[in-house]
Specification:
Blueprint: E1 3-7, H1 12-23, E2 27-32, E3 46-50, H2 56-63, E4 68-71, H3 80-98, E5 102-106, E6 113-115, E7 118-119, H4 128-146, E8 152-157, E9 174-175, H5 192-204, E10 211-216
Parallel strand pairs: 1-2, 1-4, 2-3, 4-5, 5-8, 8-10
Antiparallel strand pairs: 6-7, 9-10
Length: 217
């Protein structure tokens, strides 16, 4: 059993990660900005707390005494690069102070490569608003890659599609490198619940380190 702190625990990916972790017997601290909205998360192995993933002091306090962290937090009311780089720096600082040595982050498929050096968001005609959001994730990844840190981090990037919010858990997924994984069955669909499986797997048995890894069904 591990103690896992999950930032962004109220979102689609975050709450699935909370559920998956608790089902496996882990103790979870669920971090959200406004706990009053997420009282349903509290209890049954979950401690709900208020926190700000962009503030190193907040990260350090909420992560104290934990073995590992998951970051699924996102804010759409803050410029993408500002939010994602700010949270990256805060996580590295705060988790380092707290002694939580493993960090798994939810990435985005549009930062995966379709060819060496060519990301999905670089495709001609890619929507400008979506590209700006994706560039924030890229900037976040740059912060981690350039950091001199003992934190064992990993970014898991699902396929560049809208994830299925209703699909049942299969517990199956493929994992690769920085390129979009080919879809042998002709579909790129993937679910939040199986994303959560991959997140907790990489907490329990870390196999990928200091990199971004594509995952797919």
């Amino acid at each position: 059993m591990s103690k896992i702190v999950i930032f962004g625990a109220g979102g689609r990916a975050g709450r699935r990660a909370v559920s998956e972790a608790v089902t496996r017997g882990h103790q979870v601290t669920a971090v959200v900005r406004k706990p009053a909205k997420y009282r349903h998360l509290d209890g049954d192995g979950v401690r709900l707390v208020s926190g700000d993933v962009t503030q190193a002091d907040s990260v350090a306090v909420t992560a104290a005494g934990h073995d590992a962290a998951i970051n699924a937090a996102v804010r759409l009311d803050v410029p993408s690069q500002e939010f994602f780089t700010g949270s990256a720096h805060a996580l590295l600082n705060g988790l380092g102070r707290a002694g939580a040595g493993r960090l798994v982050l939810v990435g985005i498929g549009t930062t995966l490569e379709t060819a060496p050096g060519i990301m999905v968001h670089d495709a001609p005609g890619f929507p400008a608003e979506g590209r700006e959001f994706s560039l924030g994730h890229s900037a976040e990844l740059d912060v981690f890659r350039e950091a001199d840190t003992e934190i064992d981090w990993l970014v898991l990037a699902p396929p560049p599609v809208v994830l299925d919010d209703d699909a049942a858990r299969t517990g199956r997924y493929r994992i690769g490198g920085s390129q979009v994984l080919p879809c042998g069955d002709g579909t790129a669909s993937f679910s939040y619940v199986d994303l959560a499986v991959a997140l907790i797997d990489e907490i329990e048995t870390p196999k990928h380190h200091r990199t971004m890894a594509a995952i797919a069904a």
